[in-house]
Specification:
Elements: E1 2-6, E2 12-16, E3 22-24, H1 35-51, H2 60-65
Antiparallel strand pairs: 1-2, 2-3
Length: about 70
Amino acid sequence: MYNIERSKTGGVVLKCKVCSHSERVNEFDDRHGSRRTQAAQAMLNHSRTHHGKEPVGRPMAKALESWP
């Protein structure tokens, strides 16, 4: 769905594999949790909205529920 790259300024950029859309990690607010997680969520939302793609796999919470 996306690639993760370092920018020339040393930041982290998530780039869509299908189009030119990108999310820069440093543009998110630490007060809302991990910036990288916020950028990844924004990129997943972009993939769903603009490309009709769903993430592969299950969220971690459901995977942990099945552990004995």
